[in-house]
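Local shape tokens:
==================
===
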Amino acid sequence: MKKELFAIPMNRSEHSGIVREIKKGDSMSSIAATFKIPLKDLLTANPHIKDYNKLSAGQDVYLPQ
């Protein structure tokens, strides 16, 4: 079963809206390009990701709206 984007209610501060699950081969820059989001905005929306060069499949990324 392939997971794509889905909207969920968030209880985390400053996060609401869309969550995307990291897939093998994803990078923050490729996600930003795919969703036409400035990379800086994507990085700012995801402070829980400590090393942007070491993303793990299944990890959540918040897409700023």
